Amino acid sequence: MTAPANSGSILDKLRAQSAWYGAGARGNHSRYVALKTTQIILAAAIPVVAVAAAGVTLKWTTAILGALVGIIEGILQLGQYQQNWLLYRATREALKREDFLHEAKAGPYATATDADTLYVERADAIISGENTRWITSQQQTGGKK
């Protein structure tokens, strides 16, 4: 059976969606690592400053460092960068696998009478599953994003 006339554009849209998940995973990973690294450094600096500094400077410096650690934690929770990174990466990898199987005519596509339609249905199921997981994570965190 041949693919519908516009299946190329549908397949291109699915591949673009997969690339979007990849970019989203990279962006969320980068933000998470940068913020978490900064938070760790600031937290580790508090006792060092407490030993090295003296007087009023000590109080203000440790207070500012402590506040920054708390602010960064709030940003991490609000942005949910780690959760989004993991969700997007899992979705991207599932979509890449599905695309690979489709291109290779392997797995469920080996015997499919309409491989393109099957690919669209299976990719849509992956994306729908990610959407459901994202909504669930938003509900669990109070929809902070």
Description:
This protein is rod-shaped. By secondary structure, the protein is an all-alpha fold. 83% of the residues lie in helices and 0% in strands. It has one domain (7-140).
List keywords for this structure.
145 residues; mainly alpha
Summarize the structure.
The longest helix is centred in the N-terminal third of the chain and has 46 residues. The protein is 83% helix and 0% strand.
* Strand fraction: under 5%
Low-confidence stretches: none
By DSSP (H or I, 4+ residues per run), the number of helices equals 4
SSE-based structural type: mainly alpha
Q: Report the helical percentage.
A: over 70%
Structural domain tally? 1
* Whole-angstrom Rg: 23 Å
- What gap, in angstroms, lies between the N and C termini? 45 Å
The biggest sheet amounts to: none
Please tell me what the overall shape is. Answer: rod-shaped
- Helix-strand sequence: HHHH
* Average pLDDT score: 87
Counting DSSP E segments of at least 2 residues, the number of strands comes to 0
